Amino acid sequence: MVHLPRAVSRLRSPRLTSQLGLMLGVAFAICLLTGYLSHAIQHPPGWFFWPPRPVGLYRVTQGLHVATGIAIVPLLGAKIWSVYPKLFRWPPARDVAHGLERLSLALLVAAAGFQVLTGLLNIARWYAPMGFFFTVAHFWTAWIAAGAIAIHIGVKLPVIRRALTAKVRPAPADDGWTRRGFLATVGAAIGVVTVATVGQTVRPLAGISVLAPRDPRVGVQGVPVNGSAAAAGVRDRALHSAYQLEVIGPSGTKRLSLADLTALPQRAASLPITCVEGWSADAVWTGVRLRDLVALVGGGPDDTVTVESLQENGPYRLSTVEPPHARDPLTLVALRLHGEPLDLDHGYPCRLIAPNRPGVLQTKWLARITVGVA
């Protein structure tokens, strides 16, 4: 039987805490960078540029974001275990520096716990317990956590430096554990939770990713569905026989029925669809190139394009397609998926699919395309 270290274990030491902190810092840095990328793609600042190629880049960055976020769970637990007796020492602040350290630690624990919990709820698409918009709260709390980490490291840097540079023999604790054994156990836990969930992105591991909420091999037309047509309230409008896609540009407006769209030159593109929850799936889409529709109404390769859904409400019913994506030949107004007409839940009668973009920006149930609006 394996016995975990007792609460009073001598295994706790500045060296163990510093090593765990270093691992946690690396994981958090990766998570922060990849999370910021995802946020900037969806809400781009003026200086930001995100390319359409390689087509699977966002699949890698967001998969890495979710994987490191999940890996932080056992790592954070181990880090808190290594220091928690000190959290209840009295007085809570001996001097200004110590008070600053304690404050930064409280902020760090609270922010990290919030990020982990809300991130897991987002992966599971269980938003009811939150009561707030996940994206905004998760983004700003990440910066609070980053600031708390910077303050904590600044205050504890001398201790960290001494702990990591001192030569210490791996003597066992009073319960038989060694520091290296404990770190190896933490590493094994990280490996298990990663393999058990990363199959959402790394398809060969899908069969053994038993904790992953989504299997990329299972879904309507072989692709998972996040939002249904019924939930979006578009069923009747999408299935109406008089449906037309409105395309507005410098030379005027075109209204295209599904038959009109089908009569235009069709192109196929093999593009993954990647969602912020961490799952992605390969798919073959067929439809009209967006740049052909842009040219149809007098637009050019440097025009920004705005696409609008039949969905009347929701933060992602509108999506802006920047010129590099709009003119890319792989960006389609898709009519078919894997050779079959789009299922209603995949965006019938037509949807946007563009390379290297989050799934929330791959607008479904298109109603209008406007050329030349920034």
UniProtKB/TrEMBL annotation:
<feature type="transmembrane region" description="Helical">
    <location>
        <begin position="181"/>
        <end position="199"/>
    </location>
</feature>
<feature type="transmembrane region" description="Helical">
    <location>
        <begin position="62"/>
        <end position="84"/>
    </location>
</feature>
<feature type="transmembrane region" description="Helical">
    <location>
        <begin position="140"/>
        <end position="160"/>
    </location>
</feature>
<keyword id="KW-0472">Membrane</keyword>
<dbReference type="InterPro" id="IPR036374">
    <property type="entry name" value="OxRdtase_Mopterin-bd_sf"/>
</dbReference>
<keyword id="KW-1133">Transmembrane helix</keyword>
<dbReference type="InterPro" id="IPR000572">
    <property type="entry name" value="OxRdtase_Mopterin-bd_dom"/>
</dbReference>
<feature type="transmembrane region" description="Helical">
    <location>
        <begin position="105"/>
        <end position="128"/>
    </location>
</feature>
<feature type="transmembrane region" description="Helical">
    <location>
        <begin position="20"/>
        <end position="42"/>
    </location>
</feature>
<protein>
    <submittedName>
        <fullName>Molybdopterin-dependent oxidoreductase</fullName>
    </submittedName>
</protein>
<feature type="domain" description="Oxidoreductase molybdopterin-binding">
    <location>
        <begin position="240"/>
        <end position="371"/>
    </location>
</feature>
<dbReference type="InterPro" id="IPR016174">
    <property type="entry name" value="Di-haem_cyt_TM"/>
</dbReference>
<dbReference type="InterPro" id="IPR008335">
    <property type="entry name" value="Mopterin_OxRdtase_euk"/>
</dbReference>
<keyword id="KW-0812">Transmembrane</keyword>
<dbReference type="Pfam" id="PF00174">
    <property type="entry name" value="Oxidored_molyb"/>
</dbReference>
